[in-house]
Amino acid sequence: MSVDRVTGVDSAEGAASGGVTDSPAGRLQALFEGHRLTPTQRRIAHSMVRRAADVPFLSSVELAELAGVSQPSVTRFAVALGFDGYPALRRYLREVVPVEPAAEAGAFNEYQQAVEAEIENLRHLAELLADPRPVQRAGRILAASRPLPVLGLRAAASQAYGFSYFAAKVHPDVRLLNEGGTMIQDRIDAAVRAGASALLCFALPRHPREVVDTLAYAQDVGLTTVTVADSAFAPVAKHSDLLLPAAVGTGLAFDTACAPMLLGRVLLEALCDDLPDAQARLEEFDTKAAARGLFVE
User: Fold this and answer.
1) With CB atoms 3.0 to 4.6 Å apart as the test, which of 12, 96, 170, 189 could cross-link to 278 if both were Cys?
2) Residue 5 in contact with residue 241, Cβ under 8 Å?
3) Bridge partners of 203?
């Protein structure tokens, strides 16, 4: 089976839907898909997707600065995509990526610019969710796994914890893996012995090598890996059976992850849709919470 790393659906199924590819970012992702890109080239591709509306009007030097690579790397990237050089790639992009009005960045201070960038990340996520099938498929896969291990280390640990906290209210056995070390594979083995069929991973930059290795191990022991990552070109992509991208903000000293968090909540909704007793479990929790006085009204 050919898996589309951008949308997470089968390639034939993705071609049948106009959802994602109708957006500038989606068209760029479709252009990159199917090419074997180096880590430097994946960085360029990721930068282009994040600035999809601006890229057709950037010079190779400007794109290199945006991606943090050398200008020759941009030229080699264009050739790797099948173009004679960057000018040919830019001409192509001007044809397939429509111009979209953008707010004047100079009108905002640095804090506002960070917020505006996150708003743009959320808009991009909304475009991807125009085709709901990848998330729906992920919901089915995760709901069917008993137990359900949820992996997230370092920067992604809070994403994994938040998902696990809510998922445990509707799923009978959620196992949080938010601490690395030599025991993490033991815990995956225990989940497999208990009947697990899938693993959910949250992967954010900087990507720990241990997350990549753990995903590879999960696949080796037969788990279907569903990953929420900052990019379809993230290092975890090659070990993800279904990858759902949600960009992080990079305008502040530390990355912001509003879009990955929201995508996690969307996944929770899809999970609930495939658990027939989810509503009953939630009502039972509310009843017990009221009896115990857990929350202040």
Assistant:
1) 170
2) no
3) 229
CA dist., res. 187 & res. 149, Å (int):
9
Number of helices (H), then strands (E), belonging to the chain: the values are: 13, 5
Token pair for 170: 């509707």
Instruction: Evaluate if residue 4 carries a pLDDT over 60.
Output: no
CA angle 45, 51, 53 (to 5 degrees): 115
For residues 116 and 120, give the distance between their C-alpha atoms in angstroms, rounded to a whole number.
6
Burial classification of residue 295, based on how many CB atoms lie within 10 Å of its CB (0-12 exposed, 13-18 middle, 19 or more buried)? exposed
Task: Determine what percent of the chain is predicted with pLDDT higher than 90.
Answer: 60
Q: Are 278 and 170 in contact (CB under 8 A)?
A: yes
Residue 187 is predicted with a pLDDT of 97
The predicted-structure confidence for 10-57, as pLDDT tens digits, reads as follows 333 333 333 344 567 777 877 887 788 888 888 898 888 878 778 888
- Could you give the CA distance from residue 169 to residue 151 in angstroms, rounded to a whole number? 18
Nearest partner of 200 among 137, 132, 257, judged by Cα: 137
pLDDT in tens, 255-297: 999 999 999 999 999 999 999 999 999 999 999 999 999 999 7
Q: Which residues contact 99 (CB under 8 A, 6 or more apart)?
A: 53, 56
Mean pLDDT of the chain: 87
Residue 251 buriedness (CB in 10 A; 0-12 / 13-18 / 19+): middle
Cα–chain center distance at 90: 26
